[in-house]
């Protein structure tokens, strides 16, 4: 005789906050410049904080060599109730959805993110096929200003990516990225570390 | 004058393959036993291979102390075209969707997975609030049999979890979990490492 299980969820989705589309349509960027691609990511991180739709993190995926905008992401962890929903994860998921492939390595794609990826996003980038990552604030800035535990990254985290063909540019507009984290800290907003219950 | 961006994707979802619900309704497990919880994860990994709906990996989330089944997941990377869709990620996402919280640490939840989590899933577990992880096959089994690069886990990956209150039980039904990986290898199915294009 078979067991009767409670109904389990069979699907779940992630979505950009409603403001994102019109927000980026109303901005002007020169995406051929690295700083301008980063400015979009930081603008998204700031607006996400202003709108109250998640944590102070923004990201975007561009296709090289033309630097065509493929997708964007912001942190929607609390409103969409999943710890997976970091800005980088949303940008990656939406890039793969736009290009209908799990393997972005068939093209040349760059992820620009307002803060250095945490361990989860660092790991996700290995599988994604991304060719290049550009970061603003450092993990230690996030830990100092947003209070979160970014996880035990390998000591040579950059080298582990490079070994697999993923290039990296760090500290792009770090000061501006940190200013958003600082505003987050000053807003008294929650810290995302999970509660810990010992089984 | 504002720029006109191409339409970007605003949402994306993940879902269990259609066979999962009726499959588990037709099985009988005694979830009070660790091996029986693992048997569900391995059964899902095997059936996912048989049905051709993704890679040979299965996972489930249980709520302690009653070991109530909260969610399940299988790898749907290729059919749902996202590298994020590992079995553990799907199980986590659906558990958080079922409980409507990004923080599973408010309860006592266990993830049972047919293979040791890769670096992406290892990182995701830090943020999830999971209290306990039970694994079948080891990462080195996955690398040997499924050919994938599981990423640079910290040397003391178990200790990094324990420090944060996440307990671990390994090698549960490892032989049975490896048998599914072996069947995957013998099927000549694709290896999931992304293509690497150098920008």
Summarize the structure.
Chain A is built from seven helices and six strands. The first copy, chain A, has 199 residues and is of the alpha/beta class.
Keywords, separated by commas or semicolons:
globular, homodimer, alpha/beta, 199 residues, Cytidine Deaminase, domain 2, five-stranded mixed β-sheet, 6 strands
Instruction: Specify the structural class of chain A.
Output: alpha/beta
N-to-C series of helices and strands of chain A: EHHEEHEHEHHEH
State the oligomer: homodimer
Largest sheet of chain A: 5 strands, mixed
Broad CATH class of chain A:
Alpha Beta
* The CATH superfamily title of chain A: Cytidine Deaminase, domain 2
Beta fraction of the residues of chain A? 15-25%
Uncertain residue ranges of chain A? none
- The helicity of chain A comes to 25-40%
The shape of chain A, in one word, is globular
Number of helices of chain A: 7
How does this model look, in words?
The structure is a homodimer of 199-residue chains. By secondary structure, the first copy, chain A, is α/β, with parallel strands linked by helices. Chain A has one domain: Cytidine Deaminase, domain 2 (3-Layer(aba) Sandwich). Helices cover 37% and strands 17% of the residues of chain A. A 5-stranded mixed β-sheet of chain A has the order 3-2-4-5-6, sandwiched between helices. In chain A, helix 2 runs parallel beside helix 7 and helix 3 runs parallel beside helix 4. Strand 1 of chain A pairs antiparallel with strand 1 of chain B.
């Amino acid at each position: 005789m078979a067991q009767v299980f409670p109904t389990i969820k069979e699907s779940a989705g992630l979505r950009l906050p409603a403001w994102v589309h019109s927000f980026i349509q109303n901005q002007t960027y020169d995406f051929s410049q690295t700083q301008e691609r980063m400015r979009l990511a930081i603008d998204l991180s700031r607006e996400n904080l202003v709108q109250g739709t998640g944590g102070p993190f923004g990201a975007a995926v561009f296709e090289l060599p033309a630097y065509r905008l493929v997708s964007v992401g912001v942190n929607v962890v609390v409103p969409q109730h999943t710890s997976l929903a970091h800005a980088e994860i949303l940008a990656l998921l939406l890039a793969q959805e736009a290009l209908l492939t799990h393997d972005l390595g068939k093209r040349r794609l760059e992820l620009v993110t307002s803060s250095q990826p945490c361990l989860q996003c660092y790991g996700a980038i290995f599988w994604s096929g991304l060719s290049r990552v550009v970061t603003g604030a450092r993990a230690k800035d996030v830990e100092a200003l947003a209070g979160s535990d970014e996880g035990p990254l390998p000591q040579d985290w950059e080298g582990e990516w490079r070994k697999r063909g993923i290039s990296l540019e760090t500290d792009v507009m770090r000061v501006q990225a940190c200013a958003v984290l600082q505003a987050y800290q000053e807003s008294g907003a929650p810290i995302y570390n999970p509660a810990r219950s010992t089984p």
